[in-house]
Each structure stands twice: as C-alpha cells, then as structure tokens.
Design a protein that fits this description.
It contains 16 helices and two strands. It is globular.
Length: 446
C-alpha cells in the first residue's frame, strides 16, 4: 500500500474513514445551505456573521470542559452521542425550512444547539484518531482525515449549489440539503457500531478529581514550541478562516453571482485543501517551522486573493488559499497530538480547538460588519494581515521563552511524585522536586 494511505491498513481506522467521508460531504452541504438560508432571510452580511459566530460560541465556552469529558469517558461513545444530536438538529432545521416555518431567530437558536454538540464532537474526534492507529501512523491518519474532509469540501458545496439552484434557490431548497445532511450522520454511527473495540489503543481514563483542567494548561505551558504553534493556529482560525463570510460576500456583493457560483468558490478552496492534505499524509514528521512558514504563505495568499479583479481570477486563486490554510491546520493538529501525553490528549486537543475556533464568535460578526459596510475585499485583507501578525507574535513568544536554559514545570512528573507520596509512606522522607530545569533549546523558530 502507498505510504500516503498506509493508515488504511488498520481495520478500525478504515471503517471510520469510510463513514466519516460520507458524513463530511453532508456537513459541507449543510454549511452552504445554512449560509444561503441566512442570506435569503436577511440579505445582510452582519446577520451571516452573527449566525457563524453563534455556531462557534459553544466552542469558546464549552470545549475546555468537553476535553475533560473526552478524557474520562469512551471517545467512541461520546462520538455516537454527538453524531445523533447533530443529525436531529439538521433534521429539525430542514423541516422548518421546507415548511416555511423558519425565522432568523430560530436559525440562531438551532445553530447554537448544533455548536454545543460540535464542542464535544471536536475533541473526541481529533483525539480518537490516536486510538485507531499506532503513533508512527498518526501523522498519516491526521492527513488522510483532512484529505477526506477536504474532498468532501469539494464535492459537498458543488452538490448543495446544484440542488439549491435546481430547486429555485429559495428557502425550501436549503431545507432539502439539510435533510440530506441529517441522513449522512448514519454512516458514521454505523461504522462506530461496527468497530472492533479490542483493537482500540485507548489510554488510561482520567479519574475525576479537582484541578484537571489546570493540569492540562500546565502540561501545555511547559512546552513553548507547542504554545507558539497554538498561537499561530489561533490567529489563523479566528481571522483567516472566515471563508463562508468571505466567499458569500464576494460572490454576491462584489461579483453579483448566485448560489451555484458561490458554491463553486468553496469547492475550489477545497481543491487546494485536498492537495495540501495528501501532501501532509506523506510527511513522517511535522515541525513548528513548517507551521509558521505555511501561515506566512496563507496570509500572503489571502492578501492576493482579496485583490483579484474578477470572479474568474478570484476562483483561480482559491486553491492556493486552500492549500496554505490546510497545511497550517494539519501541521498544528499533528504536532500537538504527537507531543502531548496520551492521558492529557483530550484536554489539550480541547484547548487547541478552543483557541483555534473559539475566536470565531467574536470575530465573525465583526468580519460580517466589515464586509457589509467597508467592502467584501476588506474582510479578506483584514484576515490575511492578522494571520501574518500571528506568526510574528508566536515567534517573539518562542524566542522569549527559549532564550537560554528555562525553568519549566513538568506537570506529568509532578503528578507521579504526588501520587507516590500519597500511596507509599517511605517516600515521605524524600524531597519533592518543585521544578525541573529544561537545559535544551528549541531552535525551531530561529
């Protein structure tokens, strides 16, 4: 089997990959339909930004605690619960749209409920990959997951645009797409049920005790390189990835296009993202230098994208934007998962997702307002500029933290010492190390 697809040798991952691929197509169809529904109801970029922000608000508020749930319970069971919830929410929204009973406030309520389920689904889905494949195949599995998601990014919007266009581009047409998405969750549920649980490499579940969330923060803070990577991911997610707002406003307001042309831009973004995902699947290692370089390229690509004078040119640059963006996200995701202790993985991935996507509830309405009152191009230029600024901030942070031998706390080591002291009286006569000195320097950003 080609090294690009080596993770598919593992039966559990192969089954999960198949179900996830089908569900991802439905997810991208839903995103196009939801954005088009809001535009049909309001014709207002600010309302679109508010809807996007509300959907990601639970990510900001709940994801850190979702990470605790993921570390305490079976990730497979958590995923089954979240998939069922999102299927029901999609079904309700679809029925309301088809029957004409939908209103903007109902959309806002429903996207918040969907976001709550997604806040628990994200950490479980990301950390569950490490249970289906051995550590040496983890970068490949993360890359293939991303490739599947971005192949769906190409297919899903095209299908949604075609269906909405064929049914008259009205509100009821978006409801049909939402019902299709509701059915797509069955693919994941079936494959999760079929898994061979004995083959899963589940880590020891973290027992309930006070201070577990703080432990996750300390574990992350002890690794300046990972903090720098997460800073880059945070700026990228909050400011650079508002593609739904950027493309919707550019297609409708700047170029005067309809649902099909709007969906085509999203599909072209996915072409680049798919290529970037396949390239990531071939890499054996991921470094901070790659993440930083890709983020700089992404920021520059967005500045170029926003300057395109015509719809055709805008579509032509979209694959480059998609390639750069997915290289940043895949690199950051893989680097974080590989570096952390498995017993902390759920919490760390939750923190990663919080900072990467948690800024969207605040930033998306602002981006929508900028697009509505300043211009659609301004949303893209603002995003690209701030992504570049994020790389600078990360580099300065990393340089300050690694400028010579740095005293850092090793939370995992301290935890083992404390447990030993509690369980064995003979240890009480030994001194407890409060600090561990890091003598090596990380030159990844130098």
């Amino acid at each position: 089997m080609s090294s690009t697809f080596r993770s598919l040798r593992h039966p559990n991952y192969r089954n999960y990959f198949a179900g996830s691929a089908i569900s991802s197509i439905g997810t991208w169809m839903m995103r196009i339909a939801q954005d088009w529904l809001v535009l049909q109801l309001t014709h207002d970029g600010t309302a679109l930004g508010i809807a996007t922000g509300l959907q990601f608000l639970p990510t900001l508020l709940l994801t850190p605690y979702a990470g605790l749930v993921v570390d305490r319970f079976s990730k497979r069971r958590v995923l089954e619960s979240t998939q069922i919830t999102m299927a029901v929410v999609s079904l309700v929204l679809g029925v309301l749209a088809i029957t004409g009973a939908i209103a903007l406030w109902l959309v806002y309520v429903i996207v918040v409920i969907f976001g709550i389920a997604a806040a628990f689904d994200g950490p479980a889905r990301n950390s569950f990959v490490s249970e289906m494949v051995p550590p040496k195949d983890l970068p490949n599995a993360v890359g293939l997951n991303s490739a599947s998601f971005n192949a769906a990014h190409f297919v899903g919007p095209a299908l949604a645009g075609a269906i909405i266009g064929a049914l008259g581009q009205g509100i009821s047409a978006t409801g049909v797409v939402m019902l299709i998405n509701a059915g797509s969750y069955l693919a994941v549920l079936i494959q999760l049920h079929r898994m061979d649980v004995s083959r899963l490499q589940a880590p020891h579940r973290s027992p309930r005790r006070p201070g577990q969330l703080r432990e996750g923060f300390r574990h992350l803070a002890a690794q300046p390189r990972l903090v720098a990577i997460i800073i880059i991911a945070a700026f990228t997610g909050a400011f650079g990835l508002n593609f739904e707002i950027m493309t919707a406003l550019m297609a409708t307001k700047e170029f005067g296009k309809g649902a099909g042309q709007f969906a085509l831009v999203t599909s072209c973004l996915a072409i680049g993202s798919l290529l970037g995902s396949l390239l990531a699947a071939r890499r054996a290692t991921i470094g901070a230098r790659l993440v930083g370089t890709a983020a700089l390229a992404f920021g520059c690509a967005e500045l170029l994208w926003g300057a395109m004078p015509s719809y055709i040119a805008f579509v032509a640059v979209a694959p480059l934007v998609g390639l750069c963006s997915i290289t940043v996200l895949n690199g950051a995701n893989t680097a974080v998962q590989i570096a952390v202790d498995p017993s902390y993985r759920g919490r760390i991935m939750a923190l990663y997702m919080t900072v990467t996507f948690g800024g969207t509830p605040i930033v998306a309405p602002i981006m929508g307002w900028i697009g509505q009152h300043v211009g659609a191009r301004a949303t893209i230029w603002t995003g690209g500029t701030l992504v570049i600024a994020g790389v600078v901030v990360a580099a300065l942070y990393h340089q300050r933290k690694t400028d010579g031998p740095t005293a850092v706390t090793d939370p995992s080591a301290l935890t083992r010492v404390r447990r030993a002291l509690r369980s064995d009286p003979a240890w009480r006569s030994l001194p407890v190390p409060a600090r561990f000195v890091r003598q090596d320097r990380d030159h990844d950003f130098e």
